[in-house]
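Each record in this resource describes a single protein on a pair of labelled lines. With that in mind, the following record should read easily:

===
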Amino acid sequence: MDKKFCVSLTCGKDNTDKATVAFVVANAAVASNKETVVFLSTEGVRLAIVGAVSDVHEEGFAPLAQLIDSFSSAGGKIYVCSPCFKKRGLDEHRLVSGAIMVGGAKLVEFLSSGGGSPSITY
């Protein structure tokens, strides 16, 4: 059985429905004892900033800030695409708990080590 799981998220406040569902799935994976990574790229990197989603609450789901916090508290890792983050001029000193700035090589390493990793993209 696979021990890893990756959720790739390319949107942020531009599509809060997808962002919310991505973290719902990520929480389910980490709760299922999977080593889980959420990879934030393009507009998704904005979710890694403290307070950025404090006003996001899709009907029928927990608030996005709570989902992100629960994910990190459960041991999930948030990989933030460094080039995407830098392109947007964001402050890496304001990253949420559990967020790590990475390049593409780190994601490839996670996905390919130990027999690979199932991945879903939003």
